[in-house]
Each structure stands twice: as structure tokens, then as C-alpha cells.
Design a protein that fits this description.
With about 90 residues, this protein is mainly α. Helices cover about 65% and strands about 0% of the residues. It is built from five helices and no strands. Helix 1 crosses helix 2, helix 1 packs parallel to helix 3 and helix 2 crosses helix 3. The longest helix is centred in the middle third of the chain and has 17 residues. The N and C termini lie far apart (about 40 Å).
């Protein structure tokens, strides 16, 4: 099963320097989360650096405003999670 996983974060089409800059926006405790790295690599590949960094910055500010303490990956990927947080 492991051999069928496409590692987006390791593909040549993903700019590793840009991915590193995106990860610098993320709090240190979340930088080792493989799911988050893959999510950001996918967004980077699809949307480019400017849109992805704006998305991450906007979501980080929203998480900070509502004192979200869970996994950042869950907050970024799940609109229900972030919408529930913003409704409080």
C-alpha cells in the first residue's frame, strides 16, 4: 500500500524553496506534520506561492483569533472546523 502513495511534497514540480518558505509561516510545532506538508505542497502546486501563502496567512490569523489549539492541518483542510471556530 505504501508504494501506491504519491508523495506530492517530493515531486520535482513542487518548488522546494517555496514550500520551505510556506512552512516558515507555520508554527514550529506543526512543521513536522506530514499531512500538513503534503497539503501545502498540493496547494502550492495547484495555486502557486502567492495564493497559497495568502491562504495560510488568512487561516493562521483566523485560528489565532478564535484560539484554536488543535492540529493546524485539521483547521486548514476542514471548512467545518474553521467555520465552527469563527462562529464562536
Amino acid at each position: 500500500m505504501e508504494d501506491k502513495i504519491i508523495r506530492v511534497e517530493r515531486q520535482a514540480s513542487v518548488d522546494q524553496e517555496a514550500l520551505g518558505r510556506l512552512l516558515m509561516l507555520v508554527p514550529a510545532r506543526h512543521r513536522e506534520d506530514e499531512r500538513l506538508v503534503r497539503f501545502l505542497a498540493f496547494r502550492l502546486k495547484v495555486d502557486g506561492f502567492e495564493k497559497t501563502s495568502a491562504f495560510v496567512s488568512r487561516k493562521l490569523m483566523a485560528a489565532e483569533r478564535c484560539t484554536f489549539r488543535g492540529l493546524l492541518y485539521d483547521f486548514l483542510k476542514d471548512d467545518e472546523e474553521s467555520n465552527a471556530c469563527q462562529d464562536r
